[in-house]
Amino acid sequence: MNETDDKTPPAPPAPTPAAQAPAAAAPGPAAGKARRQKPARSIHPLLHTLFELYPGLFGVRFLPLKLGVFEDLVAAHPDRLPADGLKVALGLHTRSNRYLEAVASGLPRHDLQGRPLEPIAPEHVHHAIVELYRRKSSTPQEPAARQRAVAQLVQAIDRSGLGRDGYRERFGAAPEPARGLLEEALMALGQKSARAEALRRAFTASGKTAQEFAEMYGLGAAEVKQLEG
């Protein structure tokens, strides 16, 4: 499911003028010809306006937006945020990597005052994680991107409340690369659960205090606290 229903614009930096072509001559037949560079991409003007109006949502840090934020923005600023342009700007914002990262992290949705509201649906979180990986899957960053995507999916499964089987039932029929990422995440989650269960049994049988057991196995206090429960 696509997250563009949230339609939100990025915290835009001021547009920079296109870089001037360098005067260095190229070797060979092309000597003396200036290299051409692509002009800098312009930023939608309403993204600047949204940044000015709501820097906490569209500034250095992006936050997931509440459903229906488009209508809220049009009602609050009918003169500065015309509906047609705002729809385009929000679409650009919610498809940006930075916005998808905010969604993939599991942050709740926020209203225009920056107050956290409802959690994001598992479908939107899952889509954001897979889409971010897809965008880097054919680049040199692919191994790190895959590792990050699997780790994010492990967290997403934990937060979803669906459990491993329920999550697989809902998202397991997706095409690649989503299916492969999910299977890796489910395997990692199974290994994590098995390790936790083995530690719990060892702690119960050891007769040690939590502090002693933590020192024996090099565990943190928080992890041993979970074993006590």
Structure description:
- The protein is an all-alpha fold.
- It has helices spanning 45-53, 55-58, 69-76, 83-94, 97-104, 122-136, 142-160, 163-171, 178-206, 210-217, 221-228.
- It is elongated and about 70 Å long.
- The two termini are 37 Å apart.
Kindly state the mean pLDDT as a whole number? Answer: 83
Strand portion? under 5%
Total helix count? 11
Head-to-tail CA distance between termini: 37 Å
Q: Structural class of the helices, strands and pairings?
A: mainly alpha
Q: Radius of gyration, rounded?
A: 24 Å
| Helix/strand order, N-terminal first | HHHHHHHHHHH
Main β-sheet description:
none
pLDDT < 50 runs, ≥5 residues: 6-27, 29-34
Can you tag this structure with a few keywords?
229 residues, mainly alpha, 11 helices, 0% strand, elongated
